[in-house]
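To the wet lab folks,

You asked to see what we're planning to order before we commit. Fair enough. Below is the target structure as tokens, and below that is the sequence we designed to fit it. If anything looks off to you, flag it before the synthesis order goes out.
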């Protein structure tokens, strides 16, 4: 199966994606790390980490109950298209790499594989969201009010926004799977991701 030129990996784009991921991770994890360095790794840290990691084994149907909206318009109203500018393979990355990138989905199996990737990212951000939230609460209880506010802001940027984005993408990919299921006859659906 040959891939068209625009479907091949663009190494400049991959490097920009890695730099962008590193930037957001460093920026948003910094206040969390700062708090735990100040307070020391203790029983609370391990408890919060354990509770957060438990989110990783929650059945998908339970996480699906946390879906904030049921339509693409809901997510678009909450700014998902704006968020898309600043994420991996987003508008900013495409502009900096001088490439218009499309993901081509040929068949239900590729759509399902992409959906699994989305679910993995969403689960990761639920784990981090819970850990950041518990850390912010602990920070607040230790009277680090400003730091609690910064951790909460980082939580929104690093976890809540990506969760919204993944839920939005989940709706889009589910629509593709349904189209294939209904035998519309599309050989290839191209979605500008």
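Sequence we intend to order:
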């Amino acid at each position: 199966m040959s891939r068209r030129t625009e479907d091949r990996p663009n190494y400049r784009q991959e490097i920009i994606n890695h730099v962008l991921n590193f930037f957001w991770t460093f920026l948003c994890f910094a206040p969390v790390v700062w708090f735990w360095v100040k307070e020391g790794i203790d029983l609370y840290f391990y408890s919060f980490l354990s509770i957060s990691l438990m989110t990783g084994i929650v059945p998908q149907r339970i996480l699906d109950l946390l879906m904030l909206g049921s339509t693409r318009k809901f997510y678009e109203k909450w700014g998902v298209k704006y968020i898309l500018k600043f994420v991996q393979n987003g508008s900013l990355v495409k502009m900096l790499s001088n490439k218009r990138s499309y993901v081509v989905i040929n068949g239900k199996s590729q759509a399902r594989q992409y959906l699994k990737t989305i679910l993995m990212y969403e689960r990761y951000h639920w784990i981090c969201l819970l850990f950041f939230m518990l850390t912010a609460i602990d920070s607040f209880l230790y009277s680090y009010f400003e730091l609690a506010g910064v951790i909460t802001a980082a939580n929104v940027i690093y976890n809540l926004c990506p969760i919204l984005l993944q839920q939005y993408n989940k709706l889009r990919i589910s629509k593709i799977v349904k189209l294939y299921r209904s035998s519309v006859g599309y050989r290839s659906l191209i979605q500008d991701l």
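Structural context that might help your review: Helices lie at 11-39, 43-54, 60-65, 72-77, 80-83, 91-96, 108-141, 145-181. Residues 85 and 91 are 4 Å apart (CA to CA).

Thanks,
Computational group
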